[in-house]
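input
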Amino acid sequence: MREYIELPVMEENGALYHNGLLDTVEALIPNRPFQSCHAADLLELPCGDLLCCWFAGSDEGNADISIVMSRLKQGESVWSDPIKISDDPTRSEQNPSLFLAPDGELWVMYTAQEARTPEMNPKFNLQYTAEIRCRKSKDNGYTWGPVEVMFSRPGSFCRQKIQVLSSGRWIFGNWICFPDETRNGSDITVMQISDDQGKSWRSVEVPESRGRVHANVIETEPGKLVALFRSRFADNIYRSVSLDNGDTWSVPVRTELPNNNSSISAIRLQSGAIALVYNPVRFNDDITRTVWPAQRCPVTVAISEDEGITWPYRRVVEPGEGFTGPWNDINNRRYEYPVMIQGKDGMIHIAYSWGSRRCVKYVCFNEAWVRGEKKELGAENNPTLPCQRG
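output
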């Protein structure tokens, strides 16, 4: 038998690691002591700390599911163990997003649905019982104020962040779930709009948005907004446009990017391009049939230079176990629900549920890495060095 060298593997200890093959910086953020994790979000604070939150517990929908948060301090290279920042024993608290208000207050928005019990017989899931809640922090997330119910309409759900437009308006993409037999196929998108910095809100429904959810809102120029949607029908990512700061929206249309009825994340980069992270697989052409594929792998980043119409630059971030083909890709574990932000220094940070929700994986790179633009190594050019947090 030939001898071989055993290479080190990443541990679930939060430590930053340089992936020499891809030239990225990565970490497996610990999920201990929880069994399951999902739906991560990221935020960079003005002090340079990175925050990552997600929901954790025994299993999605159970009463012990709460919002937790980890921190990567500026100048350090290890993500902290998660701490709970919500804990309603009667509700499953899910899908957190972090928002830094213009006054410096940190908000965490999340859903809270009735927890399932053995005697229940829910219609597919209990998302139609959800409301959207908020907690606020005045000290960068070390302590949190009381729970506030922000949107009480039954079935209110969220995933992406509140966005502050150039006009000063706030917009928050939501969707509404209904108690029917469509397995969430009847969900519709509503945009929550505030012109008084979150004191009051009004809802704008996106026309013909049935099954188009998880709206990612990007302002491409003053007053012009592009929204990119997940599809409950596991066909493609969809796109809608507003020319009036979100007061009205076009009917969502298919893009060229596939979607497997799993979450996506899109942002406007400092270069002006739009970047999106997603699972590049699809399973259906019938837009009347809700499909929930188990396949959520690989994870890919794409870049568009025409406001999300075409996506000529794409790169795989997470290949999973490498299985491909319609009868074989199910052997990959699930790598899902990615989120993306860009830091002040231009570095792109993503996080996603790793290894079938075992923990959260963090990855860092820059725009040139996605585009395949080679640069000479050096502290000012190497896409990995700035991510090592001092």
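quick obs: The chain has a mean pLDDT of 94.
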